[in-house]
């Protein structure tokens, strides 16, 4: 079972993430399996907001073959995770789920991004009994594990979470560009530009 650790502060972290993800999903796309980005967490806790922050940015570039659950507006968290998993399994045939979440680790590992060919265990730091989820997991280490995890997550630096979310988002974005080809990549750019234009018009 493969495990990759990327230091988000490395200059090539985005492209390392891109290349790993591209390798993982290439055959999935060839098999026409729907790819689900399941971004887990809540914006009510700084340390636990990594998933929704990634999802919030991904919503502008998700297109054909890629689907998204979990944004700042519609987060996927402990209270609705089971129903969301049920919806995904009933709505999509043989989905490939990429689960994204925050986690705690050693002080030396804060800022690392871990990619593994296995499900993640949401809420493990809080001793919550939630189902494991994901064919592939992407976790960002936001703070130190140990006692009083709830307080640790509440007191996590926003800078750390924002930095990790930016690297993960950009890695996924470049992975999509790399795997779907430049023709479709331009379609994503046009779609993004149109959505931004509509948002600006509505706010003017």
Structure description:
With 204 residues, this protein is α/β, with parallel strands linked by helices. It contains 6 helices and 6 strands. It starts with a strand and ends with a helix.
Descriptive labels:
204 residues; alpha/beta; Rossmann fold; 44% helix
In short:
The chain is of the alpha/beta class and 204 residues long.
What is the molecular shape?
Answer: globular
Number of strands: 6
The succession of helices and strands, N to C, reads EHEHEHEEEHHH
Rounded average pLDDT: 85
Kindly state the percentage of residues in helix: 40-55%
CATH topology: Rossmann fold
CATH architecture heading: 3-Layer(aba) Sandwich
Class of secondary structure makeup = alpha/beta
Count of helical regions: 6
Protein name: Sporulation protein YyaC
Organism: Clostridium homopropionicum DSM 5847
InterPro entries: Pept_HybD-like_dom_sf, YyaC
What's the arrangement of secondary structure elements?
Elements: E1 3-7, H1 13-30, E2 35-39, H2 50-58, E3 66-69, H3 81-91, E4 96-105, E5 112-116, E6 136-144, H4 149-154, H5 158-180, H6 182-203
Parallel strand pairs: 2-3, 2-4, 4-6
Antiparallel strand pairs: 1-5, 5-6
Helix pairs in contact: 1-5, 2-5, 5-6
Pfam families: DUF1256 (PF06866)
Protein name: Sporulation protein YyaC
InterPro entries: Pept_HybD-like_dom_sf, YyaC
